[in-house]
## 1
Amino acid sequence: MRFTLNIWRQNGPNENGRFISYEAYDVSPRMSFLEMLDGVNQGLVANGEEPVAFEHDCREGICGSCSLVIDGIPHGPDRGITTCQLYMRRFPDGAIITIEPWRAAAFPIVKDLVVDRSALDRVMQAGGYVSVNTGGAVDGNALLIGKDQAETAMDAASCIGCGACVAACKNASAMLFVAAKVSHLALLPQGKPERTGRVTAMIEAMDREGFGSCGNQYECEAVCPKRISVRFIATLNREYRRAGIVESALPNASESPHAESV
Amino acid sequence: MITKLDSKIPSGPLESKWDRHRFSERLVSPNNKRKLTVIVVGTGLAGASAASTLGQLGYQVECFCFHDSPRRAHSIAAQGGINAAKNYQDDGDSVGRLFYDTIKGGDFRSREANVYRLAQISGQIIDQCVALGIPFAREYGGQLANRSFGGVQVSRTFYCRGQTGQQLLLGAYSALCWQIERGQVTMRPRTEMLDLIVVDGQARGIVVRDLVTGRISIHTAHVVVLATGGYSNVYYLSTNASGSNVTATYRAWKQGAAFANPCFTQIHPTAIPPSDAYQAKLTLMSESLRNDGRLWVPKMLGDIRAPRDISEGERDYFLERRYPRFGNLAPRDIASRAVKAVCDEGRGVGPNGHGVYLDFAGVVEQQGLDVVSERYGNLFEMYHRITGEDAYHAPMRIYPAPHYTMGGLWVDYNLMSTIPGLFVIGEANFADHGANRLGASSLMQGLGDGYFILPYTIGHYLATAKLPPVTEDHAEAREAHHRVLNRMARLLAAKGRRTAASFHRKLGSLLWNYCGMSRNETGLKLALSSIPTLREEFWRDVVVPGTGDSFNQELEYAGRVADYLEFAELLCHDAWHRQESCGAHFREEYQTGDGEPKRDDARFSHVAAWEYREGASPILHKEPLAFEFVQPTTRSYQ
């Protein structure tokens, strides 16, 4: 197979970028999309030219590194997969394919197709955890958790932090990402003590990082490689509303982001 | 110079070694912890759990990873589960049994004291993970669920669907996030360690490259912890992530840390077979598939009929035939070799004959498509996506793939290497799995090292060692900085015609053929003579475009390949020296008439720890393995 690739190339965050066209020859339908790009890069390197920078690591859909907008859709045309799980048999021979980076104000471009997603880490640092010390935990079976509840928590927890939800949203909102973490921990008894402070702190961090608001278009769910449901955004809104009520009842809640709920 | 390997294993009864050792260790007072700095390199299960726990204890931690976020470390890809001797199923499990299964699974090439300690703390690991909010699979009544894995006869594996590694890593990452927020841990993502700074015999810092700006900088500390994972990617094709590499541990080796048992490399039996030369990675199909799938090949040589046209009588269910007691759930090393054996006979299936069938027709017929789909649906979907084939109606084709490395930097009972102040945890050390790791044990070891072992032992070192101040201007730090700069310059200066990947691929196929699933004297000698030639070609003919002072992925990669080209030689030296077959290391000269490995306890019941010498072959030091509590037996699963 053979393809024409229009790839976004940009040297750094403050430089102008542009599309450059490359030909991919001798592509096998059994190649993954990233293996096809490897092939193009090998050709460039052998000629002493700089290869196209793109992120990848596990190449099995779990690390969340890969991040390409393919023909306008984050992670490409198929649902429920990451870019590294996309295979060339999905494309007609001779197709012209456009490849862009995640585009969002909160994700500045590092180089070519690589963006800086550390904003997501900072949102996590604001409260996406249970503050328990190592050691001294009670027996794993001491608190029983119903199977359905555990499964729903797992649905939310399966987020890989790739940022496709942000890239797909016209507001570049990170609501699905934040919703997944807030819901995961709100559903489990271990997350309850910090439930109130967590949602407030994470929402504030999300706004601070320059992510937009949710416009209820559900593009995020459509491109999520782990098929995380927008129902969790409803949970997030409910948790946030609840926190507002609970916090106003607590005298010093705003001073302590991890205050215990009542 | 390494004079003697002192494992520092406490004396006395096995059951109380760790308790007594912890009591005899010195402590650092809370006020003094604040003044002590710890460098942690790597943020997988071991690194993230260690960095967060040390931060929580009050140390000032500086943590490094080459990924854009600590959450992307390769621990995230572990599928199956994590073992613990909880005996929640009341099926006869105990600390003693987990200990024995692990020692036997490792073919009696690991330390009793280390393995026993790991089994002892396994339950605490689960409790800690639950407390962090990890959504383990549950039964309807709300209790934790378990499943079984290869090489054992109890159900002790805790899991989160097929994403256990992801959930455990995100748990450790969240604990790390908390400590970053508290200011106890300074996180430095996209920063790669390129050398170790040793001052007066003590590890006191590292030299790193900022992968975005290309800036090379010196970071000093009172103690350094490496949690940088394994080196399966030396084979080019493996189940590891593309970024996983040997550079950190290899550079530490060149500064004097002994490297132990590098030839113990685990080849996982069930991966999707390689298809073409462009392939960049092998995808694992979870070991759990062997609970229901049956492995077979045609009895007849060169039988190219479709699998469904080959009748029962014409099929060879080779694992069930050779190992009736464990059948398709034989341990990984044994299953992999059996697959290789039938393929070598010419009975392999698929293109190149590199494959065997993993057949679910029986279980589909007995229990229905729905049951199979519920149990393995995501794996069948993954298989379909990659191969375009439907495993519900035709058997899967699978082939072994490099997966995990039991070898690593030598550490004593305190997880300290032969360089005082250099601690090594997780897959990066050699400690607990002997010559073969059992499924679902790597997660246990990574978290055990990071949450529960290192935080104790590092305190004793810091409380007792004399640690004068070391700054960036110290001569040794400058020297290490120069080494890194010179190497970068050398890589960028080589304006040849071939890509780093082409050398990596060549090295990988050399190792796979001569130091892979089975090894022999002739092959190893050939590999040992070919590697230096390949290395010379690399430095003469490699091309690395771009500059050093910018984001340059090709430069990062070429540096890692250059280290593989040196490290591969050490791996072959070790395989050559170990003239016995044990666990994953199979020397063709040492086998029984029916192809079973012959271990040689009289000559090789030791850890082989190699010391670096510049411009010469490495020196071998032996740590004898004493078995006081179990009797090494022939490891039989027949």
Note: Chain A has two domains: 3-111, 118-255.
## 2
Amino acid sequence: MKLIKTLLVAVVALLSFTACDAKIKNAKTETVKIFGNCEMCKKTIEKAGNLKNIAEVDWNEKSKMATLTYDATKTNSDEILKRVALAGYDSNEFLAPNDAYAKLPECCQYERNTKKMAMVVPAEKMNHDAHANHKMASSDVDQKATILKPVFDAYFGIKDALVKTDGATASAKAKTLVTAINGVKMESLPMDVHMVWMKVLKDLKEDAEHIADTKDATHQRDHFGTLSKNVYALLKVSKGETPTYYQFCPMANNGKGANWLSKESAIKNPYYGSKMLSCGSTVETIK
Amino acid sequence: MKIYPILILLLFAISITAQKIVRYDLYVKDTLVNFTGKSKRAIAVNGQIPMPTLTFTEGDIAEIHVHNQLKESTSLHWHGIFLPNQEDGVPFLTQMPIKPGETYVYKFPVIQNGTHWYHSHSGMQEQIGMYGSLIMKKKLDDPDFRKGIDDLPTIPVMLSEWTDYNPDNVHRMLHNASDWFAIKKGTTQSYTEAIKAGHFKTKVNNEWKRMMAMDVSDVYYDAFLINGKKENEFPQPFKAGDKVRLRISNGGASSYFWLTYAGGKITVVANDGNDVVPVEVDRLIIGVSETYDVVVTIPADDTAFEFLATPEDRTKSTSIYLGKGIKQLTSPLPKLDYFEGMKMMNGMMNMDGTMNEMGMGMSLQKMDMNAVMYPEITGSGTKEMKHTPEEPMKMDDGGKMDHSNHNMEASSTDIVTLNYSMLKSPTVTTLPKDAPVRELRFELTGNMNRYLWSMDNKVLSESDKILIKKGETLRIVLYNNSMMRHPMHLHGHDFRVLNGQGEYSPLKNVLDIMPMETDTIEFSANADGDWFFHCHILYHMMAGMNRVFSYENSAPNPLLPDKAWAYRQLQKESNMSHLMAENDFATNGNDGRAMVQNARWSFGTEWRLGYNDMHGYETETHIGRYIGKNQWFMPFIGFDWRYRKFGHDEEEKNMFGQRNTKDNRSVLSIGADYTLPWLVIAQAEVFTDGKVRMQLSREDIPISPRIRMAFMVNTDKEYMGGLKYILTKNSGISTHYDSDMGWGFGLTLNY
């Protein structure tokens, strides 16, 4: 026991010794420009640049100049500025990654003074726009409204939200689904569809309400499994204008497997979201 | 009459212009490098690491003079090259090792084009510098010359890694299940970390299934290198819109690299030296020993764009800046979420140690199970935050990631990652239709705990050469039933990867196969001699994950007069014995053990030496053989010796009522070890004096990143419990209570 004590004392003494010795050795000082905006930027910049006992950054909000003090035997200004840039702040040496800049709080999004960047950004934007257009186009395809279309649309809305593990949107879409279900004029449904509708109506509503009531995607997914089965039964008799893919992931639902419907043949798994996006296969194409 | 000599002269002249001999002289020499602040031994060729880039044009004759100025033998293998067997550069398979002081000439006609590389095939030399680019250019009048691709400026990019440890020692540590690399990486996945991450059940379940901490790579590296540097530059003043072609080879001994680019998309134009139809991606992973040719665009003037290579374990990274001016960075890949991966593995692992792919038909890198660990894909970093805000580890990242949540969620599903099904050859690659087809199946097998890697559960030293016939088509079905991915490489041939592209299936010579995947490759047996087929992770290869394809009725290889003997040497090389030893110098005595093991055999001895006769002295020696794929079962024969003096003749009684003074005993025994769930080792032993002993023990229970717990109980009513704090690779401080020797506190040294 005594030995342990002595050892502990020794360790503590050693630790406190190093803690006291928190000065930068072989200090070299440099003043450089770092782009930024506000007090909040100051914190982020300095936190990113500082390295205990090796580098210290002091950034001036007004002049946008930073004083770098560092141990010249261990690091250099490039290493410090690279860390700062990776946190989202440009300097004369480094341009921050676009996503790092985009992640900065709004107040920190200083004006980037590079027209060079203009080359990069629009390119990405264009891609994005193109993508958005694409998505819109695909959902515009089924224009011929059937009576159940709002129900199916709301279902696909939930599915897309779950693919992104976005519980809030899923909940909102589920509310739409409840409204859509209530709005269906049963009497105008063809006979065979009507029969199925009657059979699934109660469960359909219940699952939709459960999904609407929570923003927890895990819980939503539990109900999404049965919801999908019922929507499948409906879709199978009523048919859509565009092919719909009935897909299956053997891992979902604790290894019991679960189905969902999708308008794309490519697998985007709503049960795991992006974690296992591509898990599953199409088991049936409904045309 | 006179026309003949002229004609001959003319022919001769033509053959000279057509068959240009391109000669390189390579001087292989020991050198010192310093990547970490410490000087360490490495091997340089012509004074440089990587080795010089060798450039040929299709149609040349390559003549490479290797001057071995090392104190050990060496060799050079031309990776991905079609050449006569005796030029292939595998010691004891196609040639004898190049002895110290010897000059050796490799000479072969260049009958292909593309990005290839070359490396030593001797021991661990590839890890310490012996890798270099080998570029074979297309002829300008090649009908397959692709304008806009083949005429771009090119940069050879050689990826590699560096460890300050001697690679032989690295290999030994891997076999001894040292978790020092995990400590260095911060991937111990201990119980306290698991509890903090809310994954205690995951960890228990994982160990219950007899798995050790999981990782995507085995070795901790001190540095990752592009063309021999941690950060490299290519400061050519590019203009906005310029394109550049990178000829990338992964010369790392065991690291896969993610490739990302600050200037936007990456266009893949060739793989393993074979053209593919250009395909645009956001990122790709390059397996060990693969090559990829990619085209990137420089989007702006006066800017250097970062091309980032991140090893799969994401511990560090290396980059090259393309262009001159201010440096445009790209974001580093976020740290892996190991417990998510562990959870996934638990789901996939059967209790008997086999993998269960749940009928998903996984193949061709299409479904990366590791993706559950990628925060940039799952966006889990933030989600975890919301659910468990008390989690300090995540908070650090969280501060930065908080605002990103939205962006990431929206964009994560849009990241395009290359996989093999996206590779398509621009030309038809079908094999001769009338050739007989032979199908071979290999199951890739492994045992992480003992670092045993094999095919069909046999290492090279347990398998004969596989005979093949010239003219037949070999279709090989590979199934990876191990927990690691393996880059399988075939020497001297390209194979078609059956990836759904039909006649345009891509040609490769390295196939990365992820756990649980099944892939089919086929190639035309159109050569002669003996060709290696092996996992290109150096440490897996040296553990025995190899086979040899041997053409029946091959012409004898003049370099290897006694092939049977040579093959035995080759087998021996990949099943070396490994020593491990440790001793705890404690206040209550010395506790220790030493073991020599190879793939199947274990020779181990344990000792407990007190400081006086009362405490006693004892040793137990076991010689055992591991049985089965998982190697959970090890029968052994043993020898026990002990001496102790109680002062008065006190007798002990074991749980079976057998009496023993234990004062002086030397007996033989037979028994067996069996690894139970939760990695507990059960041991039953019967001694020549009729005594029986059963024992349960476990060592190295990871309590915290550096604290390990151990316990032992047996039917002799002996028990032991201890804790160890790991200080360095070779030392720790420990405390334990032993029923014979009492409390002890001491210093553990291990080798």
Note: Residues 17-21, 115-145 of chain A have pLDDT under 50 and may be disordered.
